Amino acid sequence: MSVTHEEDYKRRVAEAGPTRFLPGTTVEIVREVALAAPPRFALFDFDGTLSLVREGWPDVMIPMMVEELAATGSKETPAQLAALVRNFVMDLNGKQTIYQMIRLAEEIKARGGTPQDPLAYKERYHELLMLRIANRRQSLENGTIKPDAMLVPHAYEALAALKERGVELYLASGTDENYVREEAEILGLTPYFGRHIYGAIDDHRKFSKQMVIERILRENHVEGSRLLGLGDGYVEIDNVKGAGGTAIAVASDEAGRSGKPDQWKRDRLIGVGADVVIPDFRDFAALCDYLWRGLA
Question: Is the pLDDT of residue 4 over 60?
Answer without folding.
Answer: no
